[in-house]
Predict the 3D structure of the following.
Amino acid sequence: MAVQLFIGRFRFVFTLISFVLLAACQNVQDSKIRLDPDFEKNSDRYELKRPVWQLTDKAYQQQLGPFSITSTQVSWQNSTTSSPGLVKSEIPGQQQQSNGLLNFILDDLTNNQSDFVKQLEESGKRDFAFDLNFTGQVLVHSQCRIMYLNAVTEFRDAEHSEEVVSTEQQREHSYLGCSLSTTSQNWQLVVETKNNSPARIQLRTDKQSLQINAVTDRLELINNQWIPGPSWSRQITGVMISADQLQQAALAFDGKVPRLWINQQAADAEQALMIAASYSILMYDWLDRDWRG
């Protein structure tokens, strides 16, 4: 009996060690989004450079084949914090949750209006702009504004209520609005995400629109093989642009470098519009990573 128990424990330990060693070997070498093979075959792929230093506007300028991103302008981030008073049971549109404190404790402090916990709302905005050139001519000018709302919970010292011991922050609402001016008309790009709600992404004029869908799955390169990423990771990993139910462009945020695919058959002006919209969303991701959740 003792021998069998020893063997059973040995097998368990061996299996556990093997699992740990296997997991250690599963280093993700790269990642990308899943694409339709025909679309990928008939598209131009551009690999974009992430800005290493975001201190200068020129860090966001780059060349994409015959297209170029120029005249980039990025403002400083402006944020304000408001205090509606003692923490309440909810904030606009959402139930406030605590990650670091047992829920019943937070609920009890909330219900009794304790000075130990205080709710704040932080809102912020940031502007950016750029030109998209084709063979030296400006085809699209993009002017964008980022806005966000964070729910912030402050936990204060029991004896010194003005002393903040720790804070917890949760993104509640993210918004990107862009005006894309072409040589013929103005397009509006909207990217909106709210806590626990699907992303709303639109590219439209008064008379027409392109469909933009968020992508939440990805492929990971492990041991030189592309395999599906973990199902529990549902963060937005890219977007796909379609016209009349036909895929025209795709953007992947993650991986060694961000990647952009554009349908080769699209006219130059159409390619420029889709590149400008994609690059606006990519700059949004660089300037405010929390929008993806």
Notes: The longest helix spans residues 2-25.
